[in-house]
């Protein structure tokens, strides 16, 4: 009985987590060596983050930095829900350039989704559309996961639906 209760509580917790978008750090932590003339705001701009975020991660109490100081920098936080990551074009570029793809890519194909289609897009229902596609592929087609890796939306956002690896 105890195992069933623990299982059910775990299942409920996982469902709650997957229902609400969260912020996760990009996977690629950088260690930056401060150089003469550097400022927190300039470093933050270079890494598409904020001075406040760099201060928080490095437990800095002020904007003062010194030459030779090592700063931990996470490039950016991404909006996620379950397995999906939703990015702006700028975030996608940063994400893509930080990937370590080790397999050979022979073909890149743009795929148009029949249902749900762009006419179902309401401006903020990215995750509902992604979950609908995944549901169709897993439950109706009996595949293990959503078929596409990337999904583009009319507002220019790009979703990563499953890992490249």
Structure description:
With 165 residues, this protein is α+β, with helices and mostly antiparallel strands. It has 5 helices and 7 strands; from the N terminus they run αββααβββααββ. Helix 2 (40-46) crosses helix 3 (51-58). The longest helix has 18 residues, at 2-19.
Going by helix content, strand content and strand pairing, the class is alpha+beta
Q: Give unreliable regions as ranges.
A: 13-26
How many separate helices? Answer: 5
Helical residues, percent:
25-40%
Major sheet description: 5 strands, antiparallel
Query: In whole angstroms, how far apart are the ends?
Result: 39 Å
Order of the strands making up the biggest sheet: 1-4-5-7-6
Topology, number of strands = 7
Q: What would the average pLDDT be, to the nearest integer?
A: 78
**Order of helical and strand elements:** HEEHHEEEHHEE
Our estimate of the beta-strand percent is 15-25%
